[in-house]
Design goal:
single chain, 190 residues, alpha+beta, 4 strands, 16% strand, globular, disordered N terminus
Length: 190
């Protein structure tokens, strides 16, 4: 081995942080794979009495198993459940909790956060299952920094409890379009 080769081998190599689109793409690929596993194995029936924390926890656990099988794994994606969030630097204890946090770099800072909510289009399912709850206690927590302080991106996942996923997506899109409490810049594709 000559001197130039030895010097180049000994030089540290910086691994570029993945771009956010790659992180989102990988995360959603893993979410879909995990949800398929949950459905195939009949681990959960999403219905009115299914708890949101249990559903999000099971999804997170399955996401970690799907991620371990994923190739290539550069760098390994860290998937954490129920992580405390801070809406500002001045507080000492978390004032929010995000369902799933993803770290896809060599740092310990989250690259992406995912929040899960139950959604229903059926009248009478309860206020916590409606689109306004999905927006107010989900989307607006990203916009208002409770979940996403310092992050330009966040992901909302909906567990549709009445089985009407197309209607639920339309219901949420209509509700978001008519929302006036805070400006929202969202991407929706039905």
């Amino acid at each position: 081995m000559n001197y130039e080769t030895a010097v180049s081998i000994a030089q540290p190599t910086l691994i570029a942080a993945p771009d956010i689109y790659a992180v989102i793409r990988a995360a959603l690929h893993i979410v879909i794979g995990a949800w398929i596993q949950i459905c195939r194995e009949r681990l959960l029936t999403v219905e009115h009495r299914t708890s949101e924390p249990r559903t999000a926890g099971l999804l997170c656990k399955r996401m970690r198993s799907v991620e371990r099988l994923r190739k290539p794994r550069m760098p390994a994606m860290k998937i954490k459940p129920e992580v405390g969030t801070f809406s500002c630097e001045d507080i000492e204890l978390p004032d929010g909790r995000i369902d799933i946090e993803i770290i896809y770099s060599l740092s310990d800072e989250p690259d992406l956060r995912l929040e899960c909510k139950r959604v229903s289009t059926t009248p009478g399912d309860g206020p916590r299952d409606r689109a306004d709850y999905y927006i107010g206690d989900g989307i607006l927590r990203f916009v208002g920094d409770k979940y996403g302080r310092g992050h330009a991106w966040g992901v909302m996942l909906a567990f549709v409890i009445d089985g009407k996923s197309t209607a639920a997506a339309s219901f949420i899109a209509t509700s978001v379009a008519g929302y006036t409490k805070a400006p929202l810049n969202l991407y929706y594709n039905a």
